[in-house]
Amino acid sequence: MSKVVQKKNHWTTKVNECSICKDARGELNVQLLGGAENGEFAYIGPVNGNAVQYRHGKVSEGELLLEVETLSVSGLPLYDVLTVIKNCKGPIRLKTVRQGNKLNKDLKHYLSQRFPKSSADYELQQTIRDNLYRHAVPCEYTYSLYCTLLYVALLHSFAKFMCRSCVSLKVKAGLFVLRQWKEDTSIFKEILLLIV
């Protein structure tokens, strides 16, 4: 197949943009399915045609959701996509594309393909990988929280074998934890009650 024909049939030429207003209850009346937690792109489910308030454009059942308000959502779990939509004000701009042979709802299938580095497919694969990576690797806050709690637990077990005056070590460690995370002290107060 020649490159000209391939470019005409490429999914980038078939991207659909639309804008949908929420109803009085704050609903889009467009069901979303899939999501990275299911190994799929988020995609459009059944559309309640009479209740959907289009500003411009339209969506069709089965289309893959690429962007919400210019935010690339490919590779995100469905609950994150729904959170983005819920927090949007005014008409919500969606970018969708019809499923094809190369680009269908199966993330694994799409990520297993090879594309030239400068292509739109390669960029979409990178976006998917970045979004998947964000949810697979704990953030720095969570990691440092685990390290500090491990440190406190070690101090606690070490202090059990020492004299009663070493209890102050546990209290100092607990205060260190509280100083580190002033915003979320309720969790640490409960942990400190268990330790001290």
What's the arrangement of secondary structure elements?
Layout: H1 3-9, E1 15-21, E2 30-34, E3 42-47, E4 53-56, E5 64-68, E6 71-72, H2 78-86, E7 92-97, H3 107-111, H4 120-136, H5 140-160, H6 167-180, H7 185-195
Antiparallel strand pairs: 1-4, 1-7, 2-3, 5-6, 5-7
Helix pairs in contact: 5-6, 6-7
Q: What can you see in these coordinates?
A:
The protein has two domains: 3-136, Roll (Pdz3 Domain), CATH 2.30.42; 140-195. It has seven helices and seven strands. It has helices at 3-9, 78-86, 107-111, 120-136, 140-160, 167-180, 185-195, and strands spanning 15-21, 30-34, 42-47, 53-56, 64-68, 71-72, 92-97. The chain has a five-stranded antiparallel β-sheet, with helices on one face. Strands 2-3 form a two-stranded antiparallel ribbon. Strand 5 (64-68) and strand 6 form a beta hairpin. The longest helix is centred in the last third of the chain and has 21 residues, at 140-160. Residues 161-167 have low confidence and may be disordered.
Reading off the top of the CATH hierarchy, the class of the largest domain is best stated as Mainly Beta
What number is the mean pLDDT?
78
User: How would you sum up the global shape?
Assistant: globular
Q: Strand percentage, roughly?
A: 15-25%
Q: Which topology of the largest domain does CATH recognise?
A: Pdz3 Domain
> What share of the residues lie within helices?
40-55%
Number of helices: 7
Head-to-tail CA distance between termini: 72 Å
Unreliable stretches (pLDDT < 50, length at least 5) are 161-167
Structural class: alpha+beta
Radius of gyration computed on alpha carbons: 24 Å
Output the CATH homologous superfamily of the largest domain. Answer: PDZ domain
CATH architecture of the largest domain: Roll
H-E order: HEEEEEEHEHHHHH
Biggest sheet: strand arrangement = 4-1-7-5-6
Domain PDZ: 17-100
Protein name: Membrane-associated guanylate kinase, WW and PDZ domain-containing protein 1-like
InterPro entries: PDZ (IPR001478), PDZ_sf (IPR036034)
